Amino acid sequence: MAVQPLTDQEIQQRLGQLPGWSFADDRLSRTYVFKGHPQAAGMVAEIATIQVELDHHSELTLGYNKVGVSVNTHSAGGKVTALDVELAGRIEEIAPRHGARAD
Ligand SMILES: C[C@H](O)[C@H](O)[C@H]1CNC2=NC(N)=NC(=O)C2=N1
């Protein structure tokens, strides 16, 4: 069975475990700030590796010292699902090693 969208209540509950992430326009999103461009790019590269492993892919934006992550599940009609929450959690785990801080 295809992955089901989470309800707004379920999303709010899961956001409690994902500080810095927000829910708007049917997407989970977060921006991270880094010391400089190499650190930001390194974070993007590791996110890409995780996304290949999970077979779930966010929209990533790389700036000078910022990385934006925004994700929903295409196969669930562009809604937020447990797959998005899982990816966000995996990204949170690696962020400290890249020196990421809140925007
Ligand atoms: C065939 C492949 O598994 C699918 O296209 C995957 C790939 N990555 C994906 N990523 C996201 N964000 N949503 C999806 O529905 C999705 N589907």
For this entry, give a set of tags.
4-alpha-hydroxytetrahydrobiopterin dehydratase activity, 103 residues, alpha+beta, Gyrase A, domain 2, 5 strands, Putative pterin-4-alpha-carbinolamine dehydratase, five-stranded antiparallel sheet, binds the ligand C[C@H](O)[C@H](O)[C@H]1CNC2=NC(N)=NC(=O)C2=N1, globular, PCD_sf
3D structure, described in words:
- With 103 residues, the chain is of the alpha+beta class.
- It has a domain at 38-102: Transcriptional coactivator/pterin dehydratase (Gyrase A, domain 2, 2-Layer Sandwich), CATH 3.30.1360.20.
- 38% of the residues lie in helices and 21% in strands.
- It contains 3 helices and 5 strands.
- The chain has helices at residues 8-15, 37-54, 82-94, and strands spanning 22-24, 27-33, 59-62, 66-71, 101-102.
- Strands 1, 2, 3, 4 and 5 form a 5-stranded antiparallel sheet that branches.
- Strand 3 and strand 4 form a beta hairpin.
- The longest helix has 18 residues, at 37-54.
- The protein is globular and about 40 Å long.
- The N and C termini lie far apart (37 Å).
- It binds ligand H2B.
- The ligand C[C@H](O)[C@H](O)[C@H]1CNC2=NC(N)=NC(=O)C2=N1 binds next to loops.
- Belongs to the pterin-4-alpha-carbinolamine dehydratase family.
- GO terms for molecular function: 4-alpha-hydroxytetrahydrobiopterin dehydratase activity.
- Its EC number is 4.2.1.96.
- InterPro entries: PCD_sf, Pterin_deHydtase.
What percentage of residues falls in helices of 4 or more residues? 25-40%
Distance between the ends: 37 Å
CATH architecture of the domain at 38-102: 2-Layer Sandwich
Rg to the nearest angstrom? 13 Å
The arrangement of helices and strands along the chain is HEEHEEHE
In CATH terms, the superfamily of the domain at 38-102 is Transcriptional coactivator/pterin dehydratase
CATH topology of the domain at 38-102: Gyrase A, domain 2
Tell me the number of strands. Answer: 5
Ions and ligands: ligand H2B
Helix count? Answer: 3
Strand content: 15-25%
Protein name: Putative pterin-4-alpha-carbinolamine dehydratase
Keywords: Lyase
InterPro entries: PCD_sf, Pterin_deHydtase
Catalytic activity: (4aS,6R)-4a-hydroxy-L-erythro-5,6,7,8-tetrahydrobiopterin = (6R)-L-erythro-6,7-dihydrobiopterin + H2O
